[in-house]
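Database export, one record per block. Field names are fixed; values are copied verbatim from the stored entry.
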Amino acid sequence: MAFGMIVKALSGFYYVQNEDGLFQCRGRGNFRKRKIKPLVGDKVEFEAENRTDGYILDVLERKNELIRPPIANVDQALLVFSAKEPEFSTFLLDKFLVHIEANEIEPIIVISKSDLLTDDELASMKVYQKQYEAIGYTVLLTTVDDEAKVNEILSYTAKHITVVAGQSGVGKSSLLNVLKPELAIETNQISSHLGRGKHTTRHVELIPIGNGLIADTPGFSSLDFVDMEVEDLSLYFPEMSSRHSNCKFRGCTHTSEPKCAIREALTQGEIYKHRYQNYLQFLDEIKNQKRRY
C-alpha cells in the first residue's frame, strides 16, 4: 500500500503520482456503491503491482472540491477572462468568484487580450480593474506575450495547486502554453458563428509548471447554485460579507428589508452597482432552483 495524488483522470483511469513515480490505477469496485468518485487533486491510498496495474483503495478527506472543473484540494484559481472576443462580462466573473469564494479558494483574476482594446476601451477596463482591486482581489491585465506578467503569474502559482478556469475562448490554453511552452496545448480560434471558443481541452490534468501544479480544465456551459442557500450568498461577496452583521435583521437578504447596511453602502457608492445587480440575479437563480428541487 502507498499514498499519492491523482494528477490526471482519463477514460476511467486515474494517474497517481508520488515520490516513486506515476501509477495508472482504477477505482475500487465498491466506490460507485459508496458514491465516491475520485477527482484530480485527491490524495489517495493505493496499491500497484506495477506502473500500469494499480487500484485506488481509499480517497482521503478533501479540503474542497469543484464540480466544473471536477477537481479537489485546490489552493487558488486563475480566473481567465478576455477583455474582448468574447466580451468581458462582470456577470460571469462574479459568478465564478462566488463559487470560488464558497469553496475557500483564493482567486487571481487574469484579464487577457488587452492588446485588442482601443484606448477608450482600455481605460474602461482599467476602471473595472481598480474596482475589483478595491474589493481585495488580485487583478492582472495582460496580453499573452507579456513576459513580466507571465513571471508574476508564476510567482503566484509557486507551491500551490492552481486551477485555471474561465469562459471558453478567453485564452486559457494560450496562457498555459506561454507559462510552459513545451506543453503545446491545442488552441482554436473563436467560432464566429457562436461567438465562443471551441472546446479544446478534453480532460482535467495537474501539470507541473514553475514550482507549482496547475490544472488545465475544460470550458464550461454553466455554473449552478445547487448547494447554495439564499442567506449565504452575500457571504461570498467580500464587500457585503464585511457589512451584513450591521443589518438590522438577522437573515437579511439585502433586497427590501429596512435598515439594511448593504443597501446603505450601495447608496453611498461603497458597493459597486454592477456587483449588487449581479447579486440580485444570483439570488433569483438560487430561489428558482430551490423551487425546482
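Remark 1: Helices lie at 90-102, 119-135, 147-157, 172-179, 238-241, 261-267, 273-292.
Remark 2: The two ends are 42 Å apart (CA to CA).
End of record.
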